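Quick review question:
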């Protein structure tokens, strides 16, 4: 007992030391930018860049909670008088914040019904006679969920208990290929599930806000689906293949598992009134999202309407108190990163950052559309390895790419879309995406288990995005040359 206490104390001390080191590194970066930028750089722009770097390092290293970092960046901007309070808090007025909130509330409501359990058990009862059937079934389940559950983390959390029960049922141990196949496959399925559905990933929603903010242009739900669907489809074929080849499963008996899934499916019984209401409201919401070009409502409007209907007495099926129990850290993160985007514009910092990268080599690369797309996709992957938070990566990288595209005469819309889609795909490091973090949290897979499939999945995604850009986008006229 005493030995266990000592080990726990050492772990806590190491964790504290790591957090102190991370915070010190972020503070050093902040003061370095503040003091070392050329004298001709205005105070407002200098402060904005310093706070941006400070926030990036804290969000990436997480010595303090994400929400606390978000508030700290805003407080610094105000204390140092970089911008007015209206600009510093402007991100929280964005529709994207309310769409994220509505998405989390929708997930809470859906989770109050056995709908997802029913869908899962139905798939496994049909395809659960072999490891390949189970693997593909759960992989596709997460893609279907993307239409209705607007958050990769929530989709992964819904599926993980099922995956763990499957691993236990077949007797697979920690370190077995089957465990790695199922868990890493789940993480990667979550990473690609938001590719073609505008509302299914925070990065997509933030991209729309950035396009509107910087270019005064936007993409509808249908536009996003049209341009990204081939990427999504090809990834649904390539990623399972890569994970399967990396971790070919052991020979387990799945007959009992399939029978168990059939029993669980039968135990749920016929569709309940709650489920029918849920299906009707979700279907109506998706239809409104898909027909945005007809009615003109921002995707936030149908999402908020769905939340009201879910909790409305006599109409809905869930109490309001359960629906509003959302992750407020995520709300603060989205609002703060959007505010930073506005701050970069207001202070001129974004133009300064773009001009710093305005070298002959960069302009030459951006002057060739074929090379520009490939460079942007690769740079987006590399940037995401360093800036592991997807929201932060999108909000800080896309404005710089817009500036470079404008300087070189390249269409910024194409550059932004290619980069945004690429930043969704974090396959190599655990900290790159929430699905990776959630899967790693089971304790059954380690960081080293991600390296090989993650590397090949990254290569595959780069090739697929570039190939779709060079063909599909040009055929549709999205990329005029």
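Suggested answer, residue by residue:
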């Amino acid at each position: 007992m005493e030995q266990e206490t000592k080990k726990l104390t050492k772990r806590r001390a190491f964790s504290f030391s790591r957090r102190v080191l991370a915070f010190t590194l972020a503070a050093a970066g902040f003061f370095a930018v503040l003091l070392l930028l050329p004298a001709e750089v205005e105070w407002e722009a200098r402060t904005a860049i310093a706070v941006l770097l400070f926030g990036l390092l804290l969000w990436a290293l997480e010595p303090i909670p994400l929400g606390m970092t978000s508030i700290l960046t805003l407080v610094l901007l105000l204390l140092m008088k970089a911008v007015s309070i209206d600009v510093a808090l402007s991100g929280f007025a964005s529709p994207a914040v309310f769409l994220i909130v509505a998405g989390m509330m929708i997930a809470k409501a859906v989770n109050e019904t056995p709908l997802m359990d029913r869908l899962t058990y139905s798939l496994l009862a049909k395809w659960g006679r072999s490891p390949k059937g189970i693997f593909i079934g759960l992989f596709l389940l997460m893609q279907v969920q993307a239409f209705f559950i607007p958050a990769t983390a929530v989709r992964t959390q819904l599926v993980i208990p099922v995956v763990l029960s499957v691993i236990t049922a077949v007797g697979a141990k920690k370190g077995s290929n089957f465990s790695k196949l199922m868990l890493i496959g789940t993480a990667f399925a979550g990473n690609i599930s938001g590719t073609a559905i505008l509302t299914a990933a925070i990065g997509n929603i933030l991209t729309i806000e950035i396009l509107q903010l910087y270019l005064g242009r936007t993409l509808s739900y249908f536009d996003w689906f049209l341009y990204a669907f081939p990427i999504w489809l090809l990834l649904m074929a390539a990623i399972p293949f890569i994970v399967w080849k990396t971790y070919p499963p052991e020979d387990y008996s799945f007959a009992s598992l399939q029978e168990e899934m059939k029993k669980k499916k039968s135990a749920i019984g016929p569709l309940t009134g709650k489920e029918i209401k849920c299906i009707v409201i979700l279907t109506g919401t998706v239809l409104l999202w898909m027909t945005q070009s007809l009615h003109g409502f921002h995707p936030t409007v149908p999402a908020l309407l769905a939340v009201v209907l879910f909790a409305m007495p006599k109409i809905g099926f869930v109490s309001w108190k359960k629906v509003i129990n959302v992750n407020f850290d995520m709300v603060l993160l989205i609002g703060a990163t959007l505010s930073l985007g506005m701050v970069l514009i207001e202070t001129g910092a974004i133009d300064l950052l773009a001009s710093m990268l305005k070298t002959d080599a960069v302009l030459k690369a951006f002057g060739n559309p074929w090379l520009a797309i490939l460079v942007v996709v690769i740079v987006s992957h590399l940037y995401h390895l360093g800036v592991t938070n997807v929201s932060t990566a999108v909000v800080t990288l896309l404005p710089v790419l817009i500036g470079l595209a404008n300087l070189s005469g390249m269409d910024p819309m194409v550059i932004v879309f290619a980069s945004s889609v690429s930043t969704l795909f974090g396959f190599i490091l655990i900290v790159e995406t929430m699905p990776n973090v959630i899967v790693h949290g089971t304790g059954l897979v380690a960081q080293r288990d991600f390296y090989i499939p993650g590397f090949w999945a990254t290569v595959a995604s780069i090739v697929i995005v570039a190939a779709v850009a060079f063909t599909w986008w040009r055929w549709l006229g999205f990329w005029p040359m």
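Why it works: Residues 239 and 457 are 6 Å apart (CA to CA). The mean pLDDT is 86.
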